[in-house]
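Issue 218. Parser rejects a valid record. Input:
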Amino acid sequence: MLESRQPDDVHSSGTLVLEHGQYSPSHQHERGHLAYPATGILSVTTSEGTWVAPSNRAAWTPGGFQHQHRAYGRTDMRVLFLPPTIGDALPRRPAVLVVSSLAREVFLALTGPAWRQAGIRRHLQHVLVDELAIVPERPLRLPRPADDRLRAVADLLHADPADSSTLPELGRAVGTSARTLSRLFHEELGMSFRHWRTQLRLHHSLLLLANDRSITATAHACGWSNPSSFIDAFTAVLGQTPGQYQDQRTRTPERP
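Output the parser choked on:
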C-alpha cells in the first residue's frame, strides 16, 4: 500500500518502496497518474507496449488504461494522481516524460511527509505539469506487436538483444519476407525495425546497468560493437551518459 500523509489524497498519491523484481498486479484507475522513480527504475506495461522510466523520467498513465509496474533495482516509487482539470494537459496515451530538477523537487514535495493545504497542492500540481509539458519527450517506448510474425521476431531479439541478424535473416527465421516485416514495423508499431531494435537494446541496457553491470559489459550484451557507440546512443535518448545514470539512480531523495 502507498504511504501517504496527505489527508486529501489518502490511498492515492504517496510513496512505495519496491525491491528488485517486485511488481504490481495489472490494474487500472479512473484518474490519470504519474509514477516517478526517485531511485531505481520503473517499467510500465500496458496493452500498447512497455515504457521504461529511470530516475530522470516519469511514467504517465491516463485514466482507464490497464497497466502494471515493475521495479528494477531497489526503487523509491512516487505516485501522484491528478484531477482531470490538471492531467488533461498531458498526453492522452501512456508516455514517459522528462523530469527536470525543478520537476523532481515538486514530485518529492507532493509525495513526501509534509502536509500542505489543498490549494497549495493544486498549485504545485500545475507547476509540475507545466514543467513536464515544456520539455520535449524522449520516448523510451517499446511497442508490443500483435502480428504473429512480428511477435516471433520480437521474441528472438528479446531472448538475445545482441543478435545482429539482418531483417532478411530474421524474416527467413520466422517464415516471411524482409519487405513484409518492414511494412509491419511501420504500420503496426509506428517505427522502423532499426528504431525498434535500438529501443529494445536501450531498455535492456537500463536493466543491466541497474544490476551494476559495467558499461563495457552492457554495451556488448546489448549488441553495440564498442562502448563509445553505446554511450552515444544512450546519451541521445536518455539525455545523460550511462555513467551519470548509474550515479543518479542510487541517490537518496531528500525528504521535504
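Fixed in the parser; the record now loads. Confidence is low (pLDDT under 50) at residues 1-11.
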